[in-house]
Amino acid sequence: MSVVDSAVERVADSPVVSKDDLPLLLVLPGLFVFLAFMLFPVLYLVYLSFTNAEPATLFQGKEQWVGLANYVTVLSDGQFWNSMGVTWLFVATSVALKVLVGLGIGLVVTGERVRGKRFMRALIIIPLGLPGIFTITIWRGIFSSAEFGLANQFLRMAGLDSIAWLSERWMAFLAYNVTEAWLAYPFMVIITVSALQDVSEELHEAAMIDGAGFFARFLHVTLPSIKRPVLFASILTAAASFQQFLIPYVFNQGGPSRTNELLIVYGYREAFRFQKYGEGAAIMLVAVAVIGVFMMLNVKKGQLADGVDDA
Amino acid sequence: MSVISDIASELADDARAAVMAPVESVKDAKYTLEGIREGRVSPATVLKTAGITLGAAVVVALLLFPLYWVAVGAFSGTGASLYSSSGIRLWPADPTIEPFLWVIGDLIVPSYRISLGLGGYEVFLQTPELTFLDVSQYGVTETSEFKRFFANSLTVAIPTVLLAMCLIVPSAYALSRRQFIGRSKVLYGYVLFTQIGGGLGVALLIALYALFVQFGFNDSKLALSAYYAATAVPFNTWLLKTYMDGIPVSYEEAAMIDGAPSWKIVTEIILPLSKAGLATVFIFTFLTGWTEFVVAQTLLSTDNYTLPVGLYSLVGRYSIPWARFSAFALTFAAPIMLIYLFAQRYIEGGLSFGGMEG
């Protein structure tokens, strides 16, 4: 609190700035620090993407300007297009899974006949509070390729053969999806539940009087009323899926043999594993541009920044 | 201080409610049973409710099963691994807290010898050795580096919180209550970053690493805290601003008519009334530094590893020692889990801000 006091006092006493824009001084420190650690690295990343920087050259100050060469190399690399494809596939499958799971759980914990709903909701969003690295390493254990990982134990209980989850391409991809869904479901549930609670009770009663069953009511009353918030949540969670790094990195470094490298993992590995900072920077910038355009379209279309105006 | 004591009393209420919940539900059940006996409630309805509730409870249990599995693993000891060949264990075969002892290690304050020069005389002071926990008594000889990681995490997280609060609170107040040039641009930028910023950290890692090395900041925990504070600014400023928006302006107007200076309005009205928001922001900024992994792993050397990096370094070895890993992971995550459980209503409130009410 004392910080605010002194800042406000200092601002009030200062004769230099014009009175109307005094509050700007309260915002500037935060903005400055933020830009120093975000905007400046972005600019530097742009610069790096035009050079042949490697650890050996960069830290001697001997990196050379190579123009668009990195972008040409990257965009003509099959590995890049594979990553791009896998990333969008991952976005599609994981978002679909997350919306389904979120809706399902949301319906369960708002069910009319369920007792102890508040307690269940409190329990269910626990994973939201867990550090990502904790959750993901746990899930790596679950999908352990060994005979006795938890996923394989379930398979065996069902009388099936065990699977080498992380060394088969699509099995690893499936494991990413399941883990991503588990990571994101608390967020989806929170939004779905708050949307479900806003669904008008009268509409439901009216539909019931008209003889609509549970599914008819879900389809014609519930779904239309929660469509917007759920759409909003899926756009946000799509961005999260696109930028997923930790799951593939911790599971099997985007393997087997680089087939599941999501874009960010691909860029990270080019830079830090294969020491190509320039190419890595180019990949990251392409990824940022793609997600930027994707989000911009969604912000425009879905009016995500509505809150700014009603302040 | 009143802010903290208010939060504490709310937490106490929560804890009381949590403890009393079973008692309340027993009361409920008794009431229902009486209802059935007296014929006020039909048994079929009760059965249906019980069945559906049971179904919901099974869903909840399945969702949280991975966490339970880890807990079982942590109590299983080194010998009995989670990887039992006899199917899934719901209870450790031979419960032991040995993995936790391995994680925490000795808690011994060594004795210090303090010498004071007093005019030609020298006085020696020998502090006693304080033993809280000596794990070698329990047959645990080697221990984890948890304490070192913990200390590292604290030295990263505390400066992060201090710096972030200094940056966030004034901005949030100004954005909520004042008009100035560029206000809506700053807000718009913050919101946009909040929604796409998550992965930008990894995308920028190459540049960040190169810059930190060139400035000689790599392996500096303070520089890492500054970075965390910077990344925490947009979301938390926006969050606190929306809290402050909810405080009626009429309070301030009343104070202003009574002649209160504007700094006094801030300390006497705005800050006390936004304590829930302040608590949320405090927790969020603390957890930013406490849980971040990728950047910390890239920038810090082995000696300065924070807890998340330390946790991952256990996995990095050729095979994961599951019992120890689980105990380590739980010791790391359990306090965070508790904080979240109690702070949940604030977080839920915070997440439903802005455009979410479609």
UniProtKB/TrEMBL annotation, chain A:
<dbReference type="InterPro" id="IPR035277">
    <property type="entry name" value="MalF_N"/>
</dbReference>
<keyword id="KW-0472">Membrane</keyword>
<feature type="transmembrane region" description="Helical">
    <location>
        <begin position="86"/>
        <end position="110"/>
    </location>
</feature>
<dbReference type="InterPro" id="IPR035906">
    <property type="entry name" value="MetI-like_sf"/>
</dbReference>
<feature type="transmembrane region" description="Helical">
    <location>
        <begin position="173"/>
        <end position="194"/>
    </location>
</feature>
<feature type="domain" description="ABC transmembrane type-1">
    <location>
        <begin position="84"/>
        <end position="298"/>
    </location>
</feature>
<dbReference type="InterPro" id="IPR051393">
    <property type="entry name" value="ABC_transporter_permease"/>
</dbReference>
<feature type="transmembrane region" description="Helical">
    <location>
        <begin position="281"/>
        <end position="299"/>
    </location>
</feature>
<keyword id="KW-1133">Transmembrane helix</keyword>
<feature type="transmembrane region" description="Helical">
    <location>
        <begin position="122"/>
        <end position="142"/>
    </location>
</feature>
<dbReference type="GO" id="GO:0055085">
    <property type="term" value="P:transmembrane transport"/>
</dbReference>
<feature type="transmembrane region" description="Helical">
    <location>
        <begin position="24"/>
        <end position="47"/>
    </location>
</feature>
<keyword id="KW-1003">Cell membrane</keyword>
<protein>
    <submittedName>
        <fullName>Sugar ABC transporter permease</fullName>
    </submittedName>
</protein>
<keyword id="KW-0812">Transmembrane</keyword>
<dbReference type="GO" id="GO:0005886">
    <property type="term" value="C:plasma membrane"/>
</dbReference>
<keyword id="KW-0813">Transport</keyword>
<dbReference type="InterPro" id="IPR000515">
    <property type="entry name" value="MetI-like"/>
</dbReference>
<comment type="similarity">
    <text>Belongs to the binding-protein-dependent transport system permease family.</text>
</comment>
<dbReference type="Pfam" id="PF00528">
    <property type="entry name" value="BPD_transp_1"/>
</dbReference>
UniProtKB/TrEMBL annotation, chain B:
<dbReference type="GO" id="GO:0055085">
    <property type="term" value="P:transmembrane transport"/>
</dbReference>
<keyword id="KW-0812">Transmembrane</keyword>
<dbReference type="GO" id="GO:0005886">
    <property type="term" value="C:plasma membrane"/>
</dbReference>
<feature type="transmembrane region" description="Helical">
    <location>
        <begin position="156"/>
        <end position="175"/>
    </location>
</feature>
<comment type="similarity">
    <text>Belongs to the binding-protein-dependent transport system permease family. MalFG subfamily.</text>
</comment>
<keyword id="KW-1003">Cell membrane</keyword>
<keyword id="KW-0472">Membrane</keyword>
<feature type="transmembrane region" description="Helical">
    <location>
        <begin position="222"/>
        <end position="240"/>
    </location>
</feature>
<feature type="transmembrane region" description="Helical">
    <location>
        <begin position="320"/>
        <end position="343"/>
    </location>
</feature>
<keyword id="KW-1133">Transmembrane helix</keyword>
<dbReference type="InterPro" id="IPR000515">
    <property type="entry name" value="MetI-like"/>
</dbReference>
<feature type="transmembrane region" description="Helical">
    <location>
        <begin position="187"/>
        <end position="210"/>
    </location>
</feature>
<feature type="transmembrane region" description="Helical">
    <location>
        <begin position="46"/>
        <end position="69"/>
    </location>
</feature>
<dbReference type="InterPro" id="IPR035906">
    <property type="entry name" value="MetI-like_sf"/>
</dbReference>
<feature type="transmembrane region" description="Helical">
    <location>
        <begin position="278"/>
        <end position="300"/>
    </location>
</feature>
<protein>
    <submittedName>
        <fullName>Maltose ABC transporter permease</fullName>
    </submittedName>
</protein>
<feature type="domain" description="ABC transmembrane type-1">
    <location>
        <begin position="150"/>
        <end position="343"/>
    </location>
</feature>
<dbReference type="InterPro" id="IPR050901">
    <property type="entry name" value="BP-dep_ABC_trans_perm"/>
</dbReference>
<keyword id="KW-0813">Transport</keyword>
<keyword id="KW-0762">Sugar transport</keyword>
<dbReference type="Pfam" id="PF00528">
    <property type="entry name" value="BPD_transp_1"/>
</dbReference>
